[in-house]
UniProtKB/TrEMBL annotation:
One GO MF term attached to the UniProt entry: methyltransferase activity
Domain of life of the organism encoding this protein: Bacteria
Protein name according to UniProt: Demethylmenaquinone methyltransferase
Binding site for S-adenosyl-L-methionine: 93, 113, 138-139
Pfam families: Ubie_methyltran
Residues that span the membrane, as ranges: 197-215
Pathway involvement of the protein, from the record: Quinol/quinone metabolism; menaquinone biosynthesis; menaquinol from 1,4-dihydroxy-2-naphthoate: step 2/2
Length: 267
């Protein structure tokens, strides 16, 4: 009888833990900012951590983000015919902008971000001229871009940081030419489920420590970054959202069991 009780207790503990991990994974006390506070929170905190951002990416992805970013540009070129105008939204320190700038057939490559400090690091990777530019701008209000004016629009780890994902995607659709291509790289949901437990432990417990070490002290942005994935749609849902907004030929590719995901969508 006592044995049965013990087994039942164990079963309960496991199923309770399952639910806990899948739904919320609250591995520390960090709370995401509200949508109203998010833009200022994200902007000022990226300004603060800009100096550590590139090495943080290298460490937390075991340098893999570099090849995912190559993939972004490769897919964008594959889906376009004779593209001339490319925009890298939420360009941050300019990794994808720099890759786009190396495509000599582009007449114009523009990196846009609202964090001036992140852009100051992007400057060091680019030869800025009439063809390659950086702009301070808001991904949810692309004032500088006309309707139907862009052939290729890329975004790397930016979409989960905007406060209104659908508004941002609608802006992207507005500025793309008919037939233009959007390639988005961001985090995804890890499958199978048993791997998700390891991935969550890594992202919520280990990744912030890399950030603190590189930055030189504790900074909540390194907790925000993994937690921001929790309010971001999984790969299947993001595909659905893109289709609902009128994008077509939407597909996605998982990297490392869905830790990162690249979506390709056409207008
Ligand atoms: C995680 S970083 C990604 C940087 C770069 N794309 C990369 O892949 O390494 C996210 C960037 O998005 C920018 N960002 C977030 N929300 C934005 C918005 N509404 N408008 C413009 N930039 C935004 C941040 O300032 C930050 O530089």
């Amino acid at each position: 009888m006592e044995k049965l009780h013990k087994i039942n207790k164990m079963k309960f503990a496991v199923s309770e833990k399952d639910q806990f991990m899948e739904e919320t994974t609250p591995m520390n006390q960090y709370e995401l900012p509200s949508p109203e506070k998010k833009p200022e929170y994200v902007k000022s905190n990226f300004d603060h951590i800009a100096k550590a951002y590139d090495r943080f990416n290298d460490w937390n992805s075991f340098f893999l983000h570099r090849s995912w970013k190559n993939w972004v540009v490769k897919e964008a070129l594959k889906e376009s015919s004779d593209p001339k105008i490319a925009v890298d939204l939420c360009c941050g320190t300019g990794d994808i902008t720099a890759r786009l700038s190396r495509v000599k057939s582009f007449q114009s490559v523009t990196g846009i971000d609202f964090s001036e400090n992140m852009l100051s690091y992007a400057k060091t990777k680019l030869i800025l001229d009439n063809r390659v530019k950086l702009q301070v701008g808001d991904a949810m209000n692309l004032k500088s871009l006309k309707n139907d004016s862009v052939d290729i629009l890329t975004m790397g780890f930016g979409l989960r940081n905007v406060s209104d994902l659908k508004k941002c995607l609608s802006e992207i659709k507005r500025v793309l030419k008919p037939g233009g291509v959007f390639v988005n790289l961001d985090v995804g949901r890890v499958r199978p489920k048993f791997l998700k437990y390891f991935a969550d432990f890594y992202f919520f417990k280990i990744v912030p420590i890399f950030g603190y070490l590189l930055y030189g002290s504790k900074h909540e942005m390194f907790d925000y970054l993994p937690h921001s994935a929790k309010s971001y749609p999984d790969q299947e849902n993001l595909k659905k959202i893109l289709e609902e907004l009128g994008f077509h030929s939407v597909r996605f590719t998982n990297f490392v069991f869905g830790n990162a995901v690249g979506h390709v969508a056409k207008k």
